[in-house]
Amino acid sequence: MSTQQLDPLDLYDVRSELSEDEIMVKDTVARYVDDKVIPLMREAFEQHRFPRHLIGEVAELGLLGTSIDGYDCAGLNSVSYGLICQELERGDSALRSFVSVQSSLVMFPIHAYGSEEQKQRWLPAMARGEAIGCFGLTEAHGGSDPGNMKTHAKRDGDDWILNGSKMWITNATIADAAVVWAMTDEGVRGFIVEKDMPGYETQEIENKFSLRASVTGALFFNDVRIPAANVLPGVSSLKGPLSCLTQARYGITWGVIGAAQACLDEALKYSQDRILFNRPVAHTQAMQIRLADMSRRITTAQLLSLRLGRIKDKGALKPTQVSLAKWNNCRAALDIARDARDILGGAGISAEYVPIRHMLNLESVITYEGTETVHQLVVGMELTGTNAFG
Known about the structure:
By secondary structure, the chain is of the alpha+beta class. It folds into three domains: about 15-125, Orthogonal Bundle (Butyryl-Coa Dehydrogenase, subunit A, domain 1), CATH 1.10.540; about 135-230, Butyryl-CoA Dehydrogenase, subunit A, domain 2; about 240-385, Butyryl-CoA Dehydrogenase, subunit A, domain 3 (Up-down Bundle). Helix content is about 50%, strand content about 15%. The radius of gyration is 21 Å and the shape is globular.
């Protein structure tokens, strides 16, 4: 039996299951987050400000569009992308959200469904951080029912005329291009809407108490003329946006592990340093049970995401499998953040410590790209063969 001390944030030694390249990716991003992200995220959160200088830094590290081969992208495997998300979200959900939107919701559909001209124009610039994208699917009246979208586009000669609006859009006001999904007579189509197109406006959403270090806004389209060259030719159904969400949800399953690890790490240190009734809080049974439960949840999430990544890299991934991991891991991370906040007592509501910030962010992460209920029903439909959404 080994007497070597286990890593409290990796009890099942998931690290030993990674390849040398995957470990290098993880460690490189972890160092960057420790050195450049964590020191500034508290202030960025407090000031409701996205630290835009980080875009160039993550681009220089090759963290944008990592799963794409060519077009100045890194061509990494899915597990590496997951590890990137994990380490970035250990810093803050806002930065992981930026990378997730740029990579999975904007670059992925252009690569999967775009023309070669669209790929050449946008993908290298986005990989270098020279162009920023956003993803327009959610609408104010019902984010969980994208098939009921009101935004629509009609043909006008070789062009399309786009009308409608989108809500809760990450990167909305800083994006150079929006991949917007709209209902047409031919089904749901994807349009690349450029920031200077007449009739296209954006508005930032203020007064958020979650993802405060992220740019979130609304998109408005008033007779926006979209040339045929800006229409994604490769898809004309809800498969388009839903496949993008599958990519992004996969990254989320990893990202929230990082947030949970940050909270457990803080709770461990605090409970070991905090002296009550003449002994460290960590020496009590009640505290050890709570910390052990956090570790159990993190370990389960790590194994789910690692297995999910291996399935994805074999090309055998099913959306239901992503839903199971998104549901489990987001719930685990949010519960861990809430309990870590409680363990810190009065200090837990202070931004001096990370749990309150991660807790507030995770309230958004568990909601966006499919609420917990949506993912439960996806799994239920797989098990029973019956659609209970209606």
